[in-house]
Amino acid sequence: MKAEVISIGTELLLGQIVDTNASYIAEKLAYLGINLYHKTTVGDNQKRLQKVLERSLERSDVVITTGGLGPTDDDLTREAVAKAIGVDLVRDEELEKEIKSFFIDLDREMSANNLSQAYLPAGAEAIINSRGTAPGIIIEHSGKIVISMPGVPIEMKQMMKKRVIPYLHDKVGNKQLIKSKVLKVCGYGESSLETEIKDILDRQTNPTIALLSNKAEVHLRLTAKAESQEKADNLINEVETELRDRLGDSIFGVDNEIMEQVVGDKLKEESLTLAVAESCTGGLIGHRITNVSGSSDYFKQGVVVYSNQAKKDLVQVKKETLSKYGAVSTETACEMAQGVKELANTDLGIAVTGIAGPTGGSEEKPVGLVYMGLATDEQVKGFKFKFHGSRKQIKYLTSQYALDNLRKYLEGSIIL
């Protein structure tokens, strides 16, 4: 079975909102084992939408649309679907009662144009919308299926879960499902990672392996096709084991795990507390750590010590250290880490200092040079990084690699 997704809305074409619906639907179709070959975005124009629908119905078995089901004049999906398949719109009395009931329950007056949502292409089934007034549509016509849902993500997802996924599951029967798992890697660029695992990539069949560059990390997406969930898991596990043997601790997470969550979980597991002193990142590391719910269990204090005076006053960096080695040095980073650890009375202290650019670099200390300090009760160690990119990219890379080194220390692969 071949499917196609059409995202409807001029706001999507103008870039005013990001289309998250299409990726959500694509993921669910893959799980069902339905092939998705095309995604299209079209504005609120009935003729163009009708043409897109007609073309999609020629090449796909299932066409899924989101958006354009509201009550206003620019919501044209119902009309376009009806015209594309050559049927009339007809009023559904039960649907009309439900729309009226929705407003009565909310104690709100219903506008007359809301009743336009009670019209469906002849022969269509309404998909109940428990989160709003715009019903979805399922219609089978001439061996093809059109499914239309609202563009509001929370309403669309509810319809997918309750009606569309079970409906499509029945249609595809016992055919193969597709399952994916993402391994997240830090410490490699996309090309260097490809080189490292090239022999594994060259013989990939099922599962397939895709490299996806993502900010300061690279994702390896393993996608297996099998008759059952268990068989797909077994296929993925076999390749995942080989990749983990090759890449070791460079794999820091899977699927939706993020670096700060992984670090936080490890700190909580070890009952350790942390403090952070930041210079070039301006508080970004603390910001990322505190984005994780429950981080107050382990994160006790963060300080931004941007100037030399702040480094001396707040985290006790020695005047002699700054004079001899400079603010951007492993010696200063280590004293910052020790100083913030003592200031907050924590088990661990980390610190970063560097040159984010685009100005401030020199031949000896170029833009992108960053030092990190990691202090424990017994030891302190410095790390040197060299990054490329814009100021924001260097700041983010610094936060990512500082957290990654902390993770590796907590997992035992970095020993001070």
How much of the sequence is in beta strands?
A: 15-25%
Question: Average pLDDT, to the nearest integer?
Answer: 94
Question: Which parts are unreliable, with pLDDT below 50 for 5 consecutive residues or more?
Answer: none
Write down the oligomeric state.
Answer: single chain
**Rg, please?**
28 Å
Kindly state the percentage of residues in helix.
40-55%
Overall structural class, as computed from helix and strand content, comes to alpha/beta
Number of strands: 17
Major sheet: arrangement of strands: 2-1-3-8-7-6
* Total helical elements: 15
Largest sheet: 6 strands, mixed
Key features of this structure:
416 residues, alpha/beta, 15 helices, 17 strands, 25% strand
What would you note in describing this structure?
By secondary structure, this protein is α/β, with parallel strands linked by helices. Helices cover 42% and strands 25% of the residues. The protein has 15 helices and 17 strands. It has helices at 10-13, 21-32, 46-59, 77-85, 93-106, 153-172, 190-196, 198-202, 229-247, 259-269, 284-290, 308-315, 319-325, 330-344, 391-411, and strands at 2-8, 35-42, 62-66, 89-91, 119-121, 125-127, 136-141, 144-149, 177-185, 208-214, 217-226, 251-254, 274-278, 299-304, 348-354, 369-375, 380-386. The protein has a six-stranded mixed beta sheet, sandwiched between helices. Strands 14-13-15-16-17 form a five-stranded mixed beta sheet, sandwiched between helices. Strand 16 (369-375) and strand 17 (380-386) form a beta hairpin. Helix 2 packs parallel to helix 6, helix 3 packs across helix 4 and helix 10 runs parallel beside helix 15. The protein is elongated and about 85 Å long. The termini are far apart.
